[in-house]
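I am writing to request your help with a piece of structural work I have in hand. The matter concerns a single protein, recorded as an amino acid sequence and a row of backbone structure tokens. Could you please explain, in whatever detail you think fit, how the structure tokens follow from the sequence? Thank you for your consideration; the sequence and its tokens are set out here:
>
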Amino acid sequence: MHMWNRICRNLVLAAAGALLLTGTAQLAGAQEKKVKDQGEYDIFNQTLKDAANPAQQIKDLDTWTQKYPDSDYKDDRLYYYIGAYSGAKQPAKVIEIGSQLMARDLKSVFKDPKQGPQQVLTVLYQMSVNIMQIPNATPDQVAAGEKAATALGEYANEYFTAANKPAGTSDADWAKTKTDVTNLSKAVLVNLAMRPGAEAMAKYAQDKNTDNCKTAETAYTNALQKFPDSAAIAYGLGRAEVCLYKIQPEKISVGLYEVARAVGIDPSLGGTADAKQIENYLNNLYTQYHGGDDAGLKQLKEMAKASPMPPADFKVKSTAEIAHEKEEEFKKTNPQLALWMGIKSQLADQNGEQYFATSLKDAQVPKLKGTIVEGKPACRSKELLVAISDATHPEVALKLDAPLTGKPEVGAEVQWEGVPSAFTKEPFILTMDTEKAKIENLKSSPCAAAPVKKAAPRKK
């Protein structure tokens, strides 16, 4: 179900309990008006009797219109039409007739001091509720609904006074009704502002044409300028930006910002969505793009709550960007280890042997650093096994130009320059030819003397 449908459902439920729709204008309310004859009086009474049956009431009103087109009460008749068409679930007719009345200034149409103010409010209220029930409203219908909702919000301040409070109504109920009407006015205006964006995103869901996302982006941006505190509009804009991320990667940052703003303001989007579902959407989107960072996400939500749009230089880094920055920092702080990790990753790749043969073999490699794990042989070694990634697992075999004079110190950290001459993947060992004299910090100790063999005793 589209967002506007959910909003419509909620508002219709709210309208059912409103206090302001219970009254009816009476013919005697305006003394300057007169029925033409008994026939018109009878039709009017029948119209009132059929108020609980909207379909029949519409027929009564049609008969009244046909027989007495120039009735003194034709404006009141339009007022009854609005109620009947609303009850009959014909919102387009409500907007059509309401527009006719608004074109003439409702206050000048309904001048009766007792019934007039309520009639004005009822027309505006009914138009506001019914525009929400037209999913594919024409531009003229939208304009009429927007005009009515705007007027409703303004007129609420004028109508809901102590003088207009019905007898038996508490101050609290009267104040609440005013709040409900004011909230309805804003909700309708927000919904109408969102419609172009929502319709564009609905088209994208069907045809996957990202041009619709661009249309939605523009529409939601315009709507957000009118209603900067709307979580629903922020969420809609965020979804449009995420859609555009497929073709414009830089859009993801604004998308994340706006979805975070919606969650920070009201994850239920004004009671139209499952708050947990919206929060999960943000969490998953943020984690997939940026990585798991609860502190960063919390900071983003707080930042987004403060302003409808992000700063011009705002950017959320991707996991790839973060990894690249860490790699660059690692290269700066551990250049020799970074060099080796690059060589090792290519050797360990499925094309490692080819990389060794074409790019590494017989090439001078810059100075590396590692830890001696073992000498071969143990005394007067001709080869040193060295670990680089850690201090225990040999990865490089240094083939010396001359044997050591003693036993190498295992665990010593050394540096060397060499030329790769052989490579095996299992076990992983890169053999490098190097000069003993060029190995820095190479330490050795005298070989232990071989034990003296005792002469076997002579046989007697």
Notes: The beta strands are 365-376, 383-387, 396-400, 407-408, 413-424, 429-434, 444-445. The radius of gyration is 41 Å. The CA atoms of residues 4 and 191 lie 6 Å apart.
